[in-house]
Amino acid sequence: MTATLTPTTPGAARLHAAFARAKQEGRAAFIPFMTAGYPTAQAFPAVADALLGQADILEVGIPYSDPLGDGPTIQRASEQALAGGTSTRHTLALVRELRSRHDTPIVIMTYVNPIYAVGPREFMRLAQEAGVDGLILPDLPPDQDLEIADLAAEHGMAVTFLIAPTSTPARVKLVAEACTGFLYAVSVTGVTGTREGSALNEVPAMLALARQYARVPVAVGFGVKDAESAAQVAQVADGVVVGSAFINAVKAGQDVAALAASIRAGCTQT
């Protein structure tokens, strides 16, 4: 089917404004990630509040039993959240609670199966009511079933798809043109939290190609874990996504707010 994607949905406008504010401050946008319901459903809101105190955009992951794009850190967090009873509907209820206290844009990272388990239209209704601004869809090829993307636009939300260093120019063009929130560029081939070496090895060329086609900001994630690696990525990207580092910090009982402040400071563009 032909997508009716548009960058003018309310969610897209809020996301683009967040990137623009960060740029005015001389920064790449800081986009922390946390699995919903981690470490427990009761403790998650406080962790999310700490991240929202520093975030330009918060990414909340729906716990899923088969997260093919996630490394062991996020996989274990999902397993723990699922064992604690955090479902897709519960995730959206948690986001609704966060939205009642924060105006920072919030995006949901989800694989396709949880959406279909609820029902695409019902999922979008619940997400819109919760105040979700956009969806990150790592396993939805934008050249296949776009019912989900169309429904997201219908409910005022943006969509984000992913590219990787292995993406062909034709694939980058397809994905970049389909994104309405931002384009998510994976810094390495592999899963989250597994980067070794410089985060910039393959990113600049990938982003140069993506910007030939993208109508939206470009954010980079997978393996960015501290202020130093965030600073490297911030020199070439519009946004920096950090996930596993925060899950590890929660697990270790570290100060999540302090880590978030440090990484945000590292997003300064020089």
CATH level 1 class label = Alpha Beta
Radius of gyration: 17 Å
Number of strands: 9
Helix/strand order, N-terminal first: HEHEHHEHHEHEEHEHEHEHH
Structural class, by secondary structure, is: alpha/beta
Percentage of residues in strands: 5-15%
Number of helices: 12
Integer count of domains = 1
State the separation between the terminal residues, measured CA to CA. Answer: 43 Å
Give the overall average pLDDT: 91
Task: Indicate the CATH architecture.
Answer: Alpha-Beta Barrel
Give me the CATH superfamily.
Aldolase class I
Can you walk me through this structure?
It is a single chain. Strands 5-4-3-2-1-9-8-7-6 form a 9-stranded parallel β-sheet. With 270 residues, the chain is α/β, with parallel strands linked by helices. The longest helix has 15 residues, at 10-24. The protein has a single domain, classed as TIM Barrel (Alpha-Beta Barrel), CATH 3.20.20.70. Helix 4 packs parallel to helix 6, helix 5 (112-118) crosses helix 6 and helix 10 runs parallel beside helix 12 (256-266). The chain has helices at 10-24, 44-52, 72-83, 88-99, 112-118, 120-130, 147-154, 169-178, 203-210, 227-234, 244-252, 256-266, and strands spanning 29-35, 58-61, 106-109, 134-136, 158-160, 162-163, 183-186, 218-221, 239-242.
Key phrases:
globular, alpha/beta, single chain, 9-stranded parallel β-sheet, disordered N terminus, 270 residues, TIM Barrel, 12 helices, 9 strands
Describe what is shown at a glance.
The chain has helices at 10-24, 44-52, 72-83, 88-99, 112-118, 120-130, 147-154, 169-178, 203-210, 227-234, 244-252, 256-266; strands spanning 29-35, 58-61, 106-109, 134-136, 158-160, 162-163, 183-186, 218-221, 239-242.
